[in-house]
Each structure stands twice: as structure tokens, then as C-alpha cells.
Amino acid sequence: MHRTDAGAVEISNLSIVFSQRIGKVQQRVAALENINLTIADGAFVSIVGPSGCGKSTLLRITGGLVAPSDGEVRLYGTQVLSPRVESAMVFQHHNLFPWRTTLRNVEFGLEMANVPSAERRERAKHYLDLVGLTSFADYYPHQLSGGMQQRVGLARALAVEPKILLMDEPFGALDAQTRFLLQEELSRIWVQDRKTVLFITHDIEEALFLADRVLVMSSRPGRFIEDINVPFDRPRSDHTRGLAQFGEMKEHIWQLLKPSAAGSELI
Amino acid sequence: MSAPPFPARGRIAAGTRKTLSRKWVQRLLVWGAIIIAWEIFGRRVGPFFFASFTQTMGGLRELVVSGDIWVLGESIQQMLSGYLLAAVVGIPVGLLMGASRKFRHVLEPYVNLMFVASMEALLPFLIILFGVGFQFRTMVVFLFSVLYVVLNTQAGVRNIDSQLIETARSFRAPAWRIFKDVMLPGTLPYILAGLRLALGMALQGMIIAELWVQTQTGALLFGLAEFRALDRFLALVLVIMILGALATEALFWVQRKAAPWARDLATPGR
Ligand SMILES: Nc1ncnc2c1ncn2[C@@H]1O[C@H](COP(=O)(O)OP(=O)(O)OP(=O)(O)O)[C@@H](O)[C@H]1O
Ligand SMILES: [Mg+2]
Fold first, then answer.
1. Are B190 and B159 in contact (CB under 8 A)?
2. pLDDT tens digits for B49-65?
3. Which of B2, B171, B177 to mutate to test the interface with A (most CBs of A within 10 A)?
4. Stated pTM of the model
5. Could you tell me where the DSSP H helices lie in A19-83?
């Protein structure tokens, strides 16, 4: 079923319940409950929330890796039942294939899509160049720094030229400086071709810096507690981070997350 | 971002070379000391109980001149057939045991039993089954070595990061490509490590089988010991040990070449 008026991502009445054995009892955890979200084509949306609130789960359902217990996700009108061509994922841990060189890692998705080898190489090189790693094409992942590994992960997702990028805390494990650098780089790349991006993070500042719209999540059950429009002009820079309004919004989101964070032993 | 990657590369390479040469100096010192101690010990206890280093070298020359040493070649050929069989059977069984819980549950008890059982105790039974010829010796080598291939391959499959499989799935990889592009390369370093360990076991199996049925190298060793030709006996043992060490070293090299990303599994003791 195709609808032309559909958003890039449409999540409706989505719930997922995990059944878990904790000690001797079987526990049912409602990780996500009745989630509804429509993301317009070309929007950059961030989701912030405390650890364990179901952010990764929501992204994996959207990516077609996990089936929901209830409800559905549609990408450009088509229901997600398995990973779709429209989307590509960047992971929290870089998840690069250790036996592939940088270039061959970027080629992976194109190989799976049976793109002929000459074109594949060309495209992989283009995206490697875009993330500034051309001279590292023949390195293995373990020979790269954490920031470089995440860049390769980003290039690998961009190479399949998806309409939607699904990013799960891609900069979460990096030091502050590298993280700033990569945020600016991602922002620059996004301004060039305006893909639809769903970006998960628990860094409030990162969410505000990157996104047009920030959704704040609470945990157990995971659901959205606020939907915030981010008005700052692009391209954004250190100047943006210094704006008074930026600081106010940061404080506001922090207040929203506080009760949730205090109530959870996970952080 | 086009700055040359790791400008300190030259220095790193020089450092590695230095450690390498130091390693060889250390080795030569140790070997020299062992040979000298061997020589002194051999001369003091006399040729009836032991052969000194120089006597052993003389024994080696005799083995070569008489042509007796070539029996080792025939033994090794038979050993290789058992070893190859172990690889051909062990790798798929290991892959299946790693990938399928059902398969693992069925086979694991037997594999573990075989691992703790004394292979030597099975030899008389194998003679009943296979006679004393080629088949018997191949089977002994096979049984000595196959478990190392199976267990290492299985460990390799089970050690594959499930996140990598999920990543492949997210790029719409069909099941057979997940097998070919994730499972196989992920397991390769373990398979190669298993093959390397198995080779040492195969060599042991070869000698033990031949001692039992008194043929080829085994028979030669037995005869030399019985007639107290300890110089040739020790020379033959030494040659077997050196061949084993060289083959192991060669397999380390193969591992480093074929799986350069997994150096930790392919570096002998560092
Ligand atoms: N396969 C699973 N089986 C059982 N429970 C699961 C499973 N996957 C996730 N959960 C549970 O669902 C909840 C949400 O997990 P999720 O990984 O989505 O959190 P998150 O918001 O991404 O956390 P973080 O910020 O730490 O990455 C957690 O309580 C987790 O224990
Ligand atoms: Mg997560």
C-alpha cells in the first residue's frame, strides 16, 4: 500500500514487550508503549532519553531488525517488515567488519545490493572522501582511531545512498573534542543533501546542535514526553552553542529528563 | 585530512626490526647453551645412555648416507592424508556445531568424551577395525588431530560478534552472504589456529601409530633404540622435532598472511 502524502517515517501505535528471565521469575517489560511519530521528508530529528528507555529498540524496529509487538512503522508509505532500501544504519559501536579494510567496509552495503565492482569502488571512494578518510582506505578498522571508525561507519551507511539515515548514538563513545568535530561534520554533510535523519543520543547538547526537532523520551514504559522545535539557523557552529536560547533549551530538556533519570538506577 | 597517516611509521618499523634482531640474539644464546650442555652431558654419561651433540650429528650423517632418513618422507605423506581428512571433516563439523544449537547438543558429549579419552587406549581397537596398514595409520592421525580443528572452528563461530551479523542484516544481506561474508571470515583465524594445533597432534599420532604397528619411522626409531644406536636415534628425533617446529612456524605465517586483522591469534608467544 503506497500513499503519496506519507511522511518519510510514520510510526503508529507502536509497542514492544520483552519477556525476560530475571533470577527465577519471568518478567515482562514494556520497553515501548504506544509510540506515534511522523517525520517529514528531509527532517533531522533527534531523540533524547535516559539510558534504557528504549531508544535503540525504537531505532532497530524502524530499521526492520526487530519486529514490534504491536503497531507498525512505514517508510515513505511502505510498511517495514525487514530492513528496507530506504534506510541505512549507523551504530553506537562502529560495528565495522574487522577483516575488511576501510574501503571494503564502505563497499559492504553496495556489495549486498549487487552493485557492479567498478561502480562500487568509485562510490565507496567518494563517500570515504566525504568523511575525509581517503588516505586510510587500506587500513583495517583496528588501525583507526575511534573517531575514524565512526566516520567509516557513517560512510558505509551513506554509500548505499539511503533516503533515511538511522543513527544510534554514533558519537556516544568518543571524547568531547572528537564528538564536537564529528557533529559539525555530520551537520555539514546533512546540509549538502538533506536526508531524513533519525538520530538517537542521550547528549542533550548534541541533539539541539544537530536537529530541527528534538523528541524527549521517558523510560518504563518508553514514550515521548515532549516534542521540541529547534529554531537555530544553519550552518550551525560554536556560535550556535553559545546562544542564550540554546542554553535555555538545554536547561529545559534537562529538567524534563531529571525525574526520569532520578527514578532509574540505570545511567 | 590528507596528511600522511602515522608519520612515525618509519620509526615503528625500525623499532620492530630491533626487537626482532634482539629476539634472534637471545635465541642463539639459548640454543648455544643447550648444545654445549648437551655435549658435556653426553660425554660424561657415555654413548650407552646418551649421545652427545657431535655424536648425534654423526648419527644424522649416517642416516642421510644410508638413506634411512627417507622413510620419514613416506611417514609424512601418510600423516598428511590423515591431517587433510581431519581438516575436511573438522571444519564443516565445527561450523555446524558453532552455528546450530541442535547440532551442538547432539555432538558435544561425544567430542568432549573423545577429548578427555586417551587416544592411545583406543589403538588396539582401531587395529581390529582397520588392520595395520595405511587405513589404520590415517585413522590414528585423523583422530589425534580432528578435535582441535572441530573445537577451534566451533569457538570461532561462537565468538562472532552478533552485532556484526545484525549490521550485515541491516544492509539487507541474505542468509548465504551472512555466512560467506561474516561467519566465514570471522571464523577463519580460529580455523587456521585449529589447523596449526592439529598439525602437532597429527605428527604425534603418526609416530605413535607407527610404533604400534612397527613400520616406517616408528619401526626405525624402535630398532635404533633397541640396538642402542642412540646417536642415530637422537638425530632422527631431532629431525622430527625440527620439522614439526618448522611446519608450525609456516602455519603461523599463513595465519598472519591470510588473516592480518587477527594478529593476536597468529603471534607465537610474542
Ligand atoms: N532483546 C531484548 N530482550 C529483553 N529485553 C530487552 C531486549 N532489548 C532491549 N531490552 C530492554 O528494553 C529496554 C530498552 O533497551 P534499549 O537498548 O532500547 O535502551 P536505550 O534507550 O537504547 O539505552 P542506552 O541509552 O543505554 O543505549 C531495556 O530495559 C532493555 O533491558
Ligand atoms: Mg541504545
1. yes
2. 889 999 999 999 999 99
3. B171
4. 0.84
5. 55-62
